[in-house]
Amino acid sequence: LRRVVLVDDHDGEPGTTPWSRLAAGATPADDLDALAGARTPQDRLWLFWTSGSTRAPKGAVLTQSAVTNVWNWSAMAGYRADDRVLVSRPYFYIAGNFWCLLAPMLHGAAAVVGQQFTPQEIVALCARERVTVLSGNPLLLKGVVDDPAYDSDAFRHVRFGYFGGSTVSLPDLERIRARIGFDYLLQPYGMTELEGFATSTHPDDPLEIVFGTVGRPLPGIEMRLTDPATGAPVPRGQPGELWTRGRGLVDYEGVSDADRARLFDADGWFRTGDLLRLRDDDRWEFVGRAKDLIKVGGENVTAGEIEAMLTTHPEVANAAVVPLADERRGEVPLAFVELRGGAPLDGDAMRAWCRARMAPFKVPARFVRVAPGRWRVAAVVQSAN
């Protein structure tokens, strides 16, 4: 931390700079073009620390060109100078920093800043600040429309929104759109290393496309799918690990040379660790994380695919799938489900429903019911009989 600026101009704190002194030394406006001209797209500008929840944090280094990516997506999405964009994510996330703060700045729009990211605060801010762009994790948006504090009048100015980060069912998404009153919704795909977003659906896409895909690549990014184990190309229609090139990450801080070599190949392709699928219409589907693969008797099963199917069950409000050790098949899927309205869990009936809709090796071997609000699970030890 190099400098602390006190905006109230109090000059009595050692080691701080009052706002008036900082403003007096600012660059004159007529020199900004010269400063901008000295920059190149390859200049390093951003450092976001990521992946700290699962392993040692890595500092993702991004360049000036990331600003172009933010402009490309936000212009396509429909940002306008008169928009009021709710900041629905912390600034230390690239989503909060780029899409909730930088994007409205690029278009001359306003950023509406909250503190708690709760349904109650979102409703209050939308009402008081006349929010026009409302984004968020879909489970957060589901919580907004289900909250006792929900007020349809609070969202009367909302034009559009975008979501990502977790799965809800199509009926839930339709309900979110109807209750908030979005003109349209977008679903992008991305990560910190990919300058935030790498693909996106389009404002003209029907809700079924927005729900089922993450759209098409943004300008300047190459994408290909490989087998996570062998690195061999994966045919269209099959899930594979996404490798990217052309935009985004230029380096990592805080990683060893061995890790860097594992993440980048000799031709500059970056291994994202995400599983995607390319459809016949050239739209991409997000499948899950490569580390979330469940090996069932030699078959690769992705937890996200099973979760997405389970959330279409009329009695399932939410679902999470994890691998469970099995002597005969190595691993089998174990499903945690939250049921609507206190319905009892009938594992046999749930399995029969799954068998009619998915391959036999994808059907969960066990089901565990989870009460609403009780999803924090430290450890589960079960055996599949």
Query: What overall geometry do the principal axes of the alpha carbons give?
Result: globular
Give me the number of helical elements: 11
Gyration radius, rounded: 23 Å
Summarize the biggest pleated sheet. Answer: 4 strands, antiparallel
User: DSSP strand (E) fraction?
Assistant: 25-35%
- Helix percentage: 25-40%
Number of DSSP strand runs: 21
Overall pLDDT score: 87
- Strands of the widest sheet, in order across it, are 12-13-15-16
N-to-C CA distance: 56 Å
Structural class call reads alpha+beta
Low-confidence stretches: 377-385
Tell me about this structure:
Helix 3 packs across helix 4, helix 5 packs across helix 6 and helix 6 packs across helix 7. 35% of the residues are buried. The N and C termini lie far apart (56 Å). The strands form eight sheets. A four-stranded antiparallel β-sheet has the order 12-13-15-16. The protein is globular and about 70 Å long. By secondary structure, it is an alpha+beta fold.
What is this entry, summarized?
Helix content is 25%, strand content 26%.
List the helices and strands and how they pair.
Layout: E1 4-6, E2 16-18, H1 19-24, H2 32-37, E3 44-50, E4 58-63, H3 66-77, E5 84-87, H4 94-106, E6 110-113, H5 119-129, H6 138-146, E7 160-162, H7 170-180, E8 184-186, E9 188-189, E10 199-200, H8 207-212, E11 216-217, E12 222-226, E13 240-245, E14 251-253, H9 257-263, E15 270-278, E16 284-289, E17 293-296, E18 299-302, H10 303-310, E19 316-326, E20 330-339, H11 347-355, E21 366-369
Parallel strand pairs: 1-2, 5-6, 7-8, 20-21
Antiparallel strand pairs: 3-4, 4-14, 9-10, 10-11, 12-13, 13-15, 15-16, 17-18, 19-20
